[in-house]
User: Which sequence fits this backbone?
């Protein structure tokens, strides 16, 4: 099984890459049986259909990379040394999660939880190749254009009480407190996201994960932004099924935002 899928641009390439690290649903055959069957059936922590939301991007010249493995196997947006992304008492799952976001144990028994050797194996076999490919894509676009923007695309349930008690804003742009991207790109992204009827937040409650924080280097013209959005914006009220009408409104905002970012990249 391929670890990721790359969708190449269908027109002239632009210096934007979209990363979708949490929409995968596959498990390696050797460990699939280790997970609780009921939880595995719904995979609640999956960023369902995010790749479908961005299916217009290749027509704009944007390269898309989507991970195929479930984040329960390996979380590509965590630090490889398991250094926490936040220190505010929220539930933070590890690079090889043992619970879902609600704190439910995902393995059938504690004996099946990955030990240090297994974690190291998964990092080498599944985590490193994705990050290497991201870096290769960034290097290619940087060499061609002198600049590049990596847009890390995510979604989450509209309320997760183990992270915060209140409902999340509709869309949350993260740039680690404006450290990972040029100010003009941040301003353009926020303005584009606000063209819809959605409540937009900046760096709260999410500042961007490991991908955004580790790869962004504006001084070298390598810019990264993370977009987290509520699943209910494009799925049904139970956040189980894709809702084409709702998704259409989201896609319109995303397309406008990315079109504007392409133009802003020409200016910086």
Assistant:
């Amino acid at each position: 099984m391929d670890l990721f899928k790359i969708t190449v641009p269908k027109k002239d390439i632009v210096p934007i890459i979209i990363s979708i690290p949490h929409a995968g649903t596959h498990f390696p055959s050797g460990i699939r049986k280790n997970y609780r069957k009921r939880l595995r059936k719904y995979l609640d922590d999956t960023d369902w259909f995010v790749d479908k939301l961005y299916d217009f991007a290749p027509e704009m010249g944007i390269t898309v990379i989507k991970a195929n493995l479930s984040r329960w196997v390996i979380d590509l947006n965590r630090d490889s040394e398991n250094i926490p992304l936040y220190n505010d008492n929220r539930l933070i799952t590890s690079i090889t999660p043992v619970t879902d976001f609600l704190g439910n144990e995902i393995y059938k028994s504690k004996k099946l939880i990955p030990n240090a050797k297994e974690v190291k194996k998964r990092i080498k076999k599944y985590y490193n190749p994705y990050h290497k490919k991201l870096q290769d894509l960034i290097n290619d676009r940087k060499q061609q254009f002198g600049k590049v923007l990596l847009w890390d695309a995510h979604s989450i349930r509209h309320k997760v009480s183990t992270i915060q008690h209140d409902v999340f804003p509709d869309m949350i742009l993260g740039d680690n407190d404006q450290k990972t991207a040029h100010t003009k790109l941040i301003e353009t992204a926020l303005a584009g996201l606000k063209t819809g009827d959605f409540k937009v937040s900046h760096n709260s409650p999410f500042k961007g994960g490991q991908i955004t924080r580790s790869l962004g280097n504006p001084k070298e013209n390598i810019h990264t932004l993370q977009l987290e959005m509520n699943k209910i914006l494009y799925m049904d009220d139970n956040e189980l099924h894709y809702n084409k009408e709702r998704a259409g409104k989201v896609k319109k905002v995303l397309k406008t935002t990315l079109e504007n970012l392409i133009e802003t990249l020409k200016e910086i």
Observations:
- The helical segments are 29-32, 37-42, 50-53, 116-145, 183-193, 210-215, 244-265.
- The chain has seven helices and seven strands.
- The beta strands are 4-7, 16-20, 63-67, 148-156, 171-174, 200-202, 222-230.
- The longest helix spans residues 116-145.
